[in-house]
């Protein structure tokens, strides 16, 4: 059973959020919410007493207490949890094989894996390592390095293995591929790891200097993966990356990308 006062209080916070720093008076908020001014005035007094809104000249705006609450929430959320939540909330990716990975030297390390519902069995699982040179998540992360760093890191041919006939093993060809990733904004592996599988990935933007870089990826059956499907996958992965980078947005925005 809902509590009307709580619902109205949350709607007040939503109005002030939408005001983008501008103040709103009690009369204006009551008008927008369609409630009596006296009722809303009492709610605002209670919210003000708790510090979640602040009275200023001309009305109210959001209070500092929300920063403390938001910080407490963020401390309970890590990228792995955000990844699984985004997989669950994003219709397109819910049925697909997805990965969350970090770069470790010339490999990628899988921190999380979502199995999806397709009748496809992959060897990737939590803790698995794959060559960064041929994986989409690896390429997405390598795009953050400059060409000189790539040449130094992948100088040894052993760091550029061929898992399939489509695997790119030449150093200069690898660098050209990573340049394409930078220009395109997402990474693409067409059968370099598993024949008949197209890997797609995007990097997760770091929120702090020196923060560990992450990438999110999806593995799709090549036979079904036309340009339209790839675009949908990239849009969904990009939405997931935004939510992992900023989990305060979970449940909002474009997390529910459609198929």
Automatic annotation (TrEMBL):
Keyword Ribonucleoprotein part of the UniProt annotation: no
SMART domains according to UniProt: HTH_ICLR
Domain of life: Bacteria
Pfam family, one: HTH_IclR
UniProt keyword annotation of Nucleus present: no
Domain IclR-ED as annotated: residue spans: 65-250
Protein name (database record): HTH-type transcriptional repressor AllR
UniProt source species: Kushneria indalinina DSM 14324
